[in-house]
Amino acid sequence: MTAASQQSLTQWLESDTPASSRQALAGNVYRGTRSIVSNPAALAGLIIVALLIVMAVMAPHLARGISPIEQNLSNRLHAPDTAHWFGTDELGRDIYARTLYGARVTIAMVLLVSVIVGPIGLAVGTLAGFLGGWMDALLMRITDIFLAFPRLVLALAFAAALGPGIENAVIAISLTAWPPYARIARAETVTIAKSDFIAAAKMLGASTWRILFKHIVPLCLSSVIVRLTLDMAGIILTAAGLGFLGLGAQPPTTEWGAMVSAGREVILDQWWVATIPGIAIFVVSLGFNLLGDGLRDVFDPKSV
Amino acid sequence: MSETLLDVQDLNVSFPSRGGVTQAVRHVNFTLGRERLGVVGESGSGKSTMGRALLGLTPRPGIVSAKKMTFDGENLLDCSESDWQRLRGRRMTMVTQDPKYSLNPVMGIGQQIGETCRLHLGANAAEARRRTLSMLEAVQIRDPDRVYNLYPHELSGGMGQRAMIAMMLVAEPDLLIADEPTSALDVTVQNEVLRILDDLVRDRGMGLIFISHNLTVVSSFCDRILVMYGGKIMEECKASELHRAKHPYTRALIAAAPSLEVTHKELATVTRDPAWLA
Amino acid sequence: MTDTQIGQTNIVGHMLRRASSFIASLALTFVGLTAITFLISRLTKIDPVLAIVGDKASKEVYDKTFVMLGLDKPLIVQYGAYLRKLLSGDLGTSVLTSQPVLTDLLHVFPATFELATIATIFGVLIGVPGGVLAAARKGQWPDQLVRVVCLFGYSIPVFWLGLVGLFVFYGKLGWVSGTGRLDIAFDDIVTTRTGILLIDAAISGEWEIFRNAFSHLILPAGILAYFSLAYIARMTRSFMIDQLSQEYIIAARIKGRSYWGAVWKHAFPNIMVPLITVIGLSYASLLEGAVLTETVFAWPGLGQYITRALFNSDMNAVLGGTVLVGTVFIGVNLFCDFLYKVFDPRLRSS
After folding, report:
1. For A114-155, how does the pLDDT look when each residue is reduced to its tens digit (9 = 90+)?
2. A254, B119, B198, C58: which has the fewest C-beta neighbours closer than 10 Å?
């Protein structure tokens, strides 16, 4: 790109008077990204999350072909060395490879939970906020009830009944994770619903569904996304906790919480078996927390 | 003329930020005796910032510098935190704009006023209560005993402002800086509060700096007037000689003040000359 | 009536209204919780009839037991029966211990209570001043330090920290005792009065046992305390920053208050009420954190009871424990809500 065209691209992105919705969106993304990149903590968070995704996607390549589930009992509980960068566990499996593949489960759980709680929270919240009246009261009552439940214990009970496994863990976590999103969506909807452009849409004959879907939901999205990112650390920790108790992804699937649990027996002598997957959980949670804080500063600088 | 309370020479307040340095107050000079000085300016003119600088309450990251800034001979630029605590409330004080925000919401009115007594007059609880009640009477609050136990949100605007005046004047300071004391009040209540301020300042022989954006009120209330714009003093004159003001900004302000006697087809607005900011 | 009398009636009326609203919320949420535990119990793959009659029973016996258990009735009716049993204290019998679940729960609860309470006390003692300091020195190094501590507290898995703590402070340094509540040698010496070992040992004058119990308690309680203080410090900091930017703080300094005088005597009283809510919430969430901590430290409390029941498919025990933890959790949340609404003077006269 020549200097001249680069200059005009920046001007186009920073323009105060966007000529199309595409330009407005691009401008917002540009400004948001610049804000995050200029904030060192948020940038660190973004890098960590990006690394996590890379780890998950490129696991086979990064593991240099080592299998995470191949057992080698003659090589068990080896300290970290050049052959096994993170050492081996109680069944002789390479911990470095297992850590890489474990990222896949983490991402999968985070995505699955988000994909469930986001839409449910949005649906409940926007309906409640838009329709008002007894529907609002009823939906908010239900939300409050779920909000008051203890997450981990309920997930335990759920897993006890339905058996362990990643699907049950996801459902169990989602069951108690959706209420805050309903609350956020409702608060935003109540404000937006009073706007003139909604009244205009109604006068034009738009159905409730159309108004909700095309107008209200997009405006609530940014708050929901910020909250989701902030919550992800908590979701990862809860999922890891369930994994630690053996309720998450089942063997042979590799999961970090389960790895920590396996290393528990040998913590005093072979500390790396439990410690390293724990560090992975910690770093990833930290990354999401930092990124979430940065996103919140971008979208809502008034909050502390 | 009475003795000089405040002597300010070349006062500057600047706020460094990532985008550069903002000069909020520039080269301000004035003296104040036991008289009434009005400071008039629009928002952003630096008048409130100057008021706070005089009390050492410039917020971070503001920097205050001056060639000279003394109160009753004491060098304010040299003051340590404990020096300021000795001066504030007891010798110099400030009344701010909105009692809704300036009074502690979870403390009773009587307790807040009594706090000033206990901090400066060494009063015990009973003595503090006595002084508080008599001060509440002095600001013409009709039922001091009842108001003593009320919380700020239970007071009307006018009563709240009077309570704040009581709180700040109960330790009998020599200097009062009133920063937009009536701007948040209903028009009907404004005059009452002004009258109370008038009486108190006169009876106690206090020095008063009256900061406001309202030229009409200031000119009727004060002896001298400072007109501020862009952090600088544009003009200084006696209130009685305001109509003879020379600076174009002052003249524009006077012209812009609506009058009931003269009918204008259009209200005059102020055209700002960028040269004034130099 | 005089003004003061009207004022007092208002406060009492206000309290009664809030109390009834609190009880209504509690009841409703309890119904919600038990509905979910009921549904979970129905979802279980274990056939409750087979659990009683065994898998060799004839069809007749099976059908009879089916009706006896009320399983032929509509779900709502079954739930009603379930709820009635719960409220009368019948949480079923534990398959593992053959005791009524309620008895088991009351037996293990004090150990968890001990952990959560001590952890919260330290969380408050360190977290509140830490949060105030961070807010008062915002942007400077005490603030950065507190923020980093809190950030870690939100990112570290509690079970991992427990294991690392055991490795470092027990395995390598030998400063504290290992898992469990007491060394095995000391088991069953102290008579259980309150269920709280430290208190019972002190009452009996068994100081060696007291020291041993303490050295077992300090690591798990310390770890839980860390999470507690991270949350409390963060919320305290947030509240204080809000208050310190208000006009009344400047007014206090104009009166002659020092900066720290304004911080503690003016700003802090304004956050005490929401802070109580925060402390309550922290306590409630520690009950949850205890589940994982107890597993790591083999602490004989509620958390370990539930997880052990889980591994042995003891559904009654799991669900009974869930109901107990859930109810305490909900109760603490709603009670703090109630306290907040009653004690905020701004809301009193509304």
Report:
1. 999 999 999 999 888 888 888 888 888 888 888 888 888 888
2. C58
Here the ipTM equals 0.89
Residue C37 burial (CB count, 10 A): 23
Q: Does A179 touch chain C if contact means CB atoms closer than 8 Å? A: no
Interchain pair A148, C329: CB under 8 A: yes
- Positive/negative CA dihedral, A85, A86, A87, A93: negative
Question: Is B164 in contact with B154 (CB distance < 8 Å)?
Answer: no
Yes or no: say if C326 and A176 are a contact pair by the CB < 8 Å rule. Answer: no
- Asked if A213 has any chain C CB less than 8 Å from its own CB, the reply is no
> Which string of b and e fits A76-110 if b means at least 16 CB within 10 Å?
bbbeeeeebebbbbeebbbbbbbbbbbbbbbbbbb
SS3 B17: strand
Q: Which residues of A touch C310 (CB under 8 A)?
A: 156, 159-160, 245, 247
Domain boundaries, chain A: 34-62+85-298
Closest CA to A190 of A143, A140, A228: A140
How would you class A174 by CB atoms within 10 Å of its CB: exposed for 0-12, middle for 13-18, buried for 19 or more? Answer: buried
CATH number of the structural domain A34-62+85-298: 1.10.3720.10
B8-33 pLDDT tens trace: 999 999 999 877 888 999 999 999 98
Judging contacts by C-beta atoms under 8 Å, the chain C residues touching residue B54 are none
Structure tokens, A177: 């994770």
Residues of C in contact with A142 (CB under 8 A): 32
Q: Give the contacts of C232 (CB within 8 A, at least 6 positions apart).
A: C123, C124, C127, C128, C131, C275, C278, C279, C282
Residue A237 φ then ψ, to 5°: -65, -40
Interval B129-146 mean pLDDT: 92
Distance, in Å, from the CA atom of A100 to the CA atom of A277, rounded to the nearest integer, reads: 10
For the CA atoms of C98, C100, C101, C103, the dihedral, rounded to the nearest 10 degrees, stands at -110
The pTM is what?
0.86
Query: Would you say A186 and A123 are in contact if contact means Cβ atoms under 8 Å apart?
Result: no
Contact flag B102-C257 (C-beta cutoff 8 Å): no
Phi and psi at B41, nearest 5°, equal 180, 165
Which residue is closest to B58 within chain C, CA to CA? C250
Q: How far apart are alpha carbons A262 and A267 in whole angstroms?
A: 9
Rounded CA gap, C39 and C54, in Å?
23
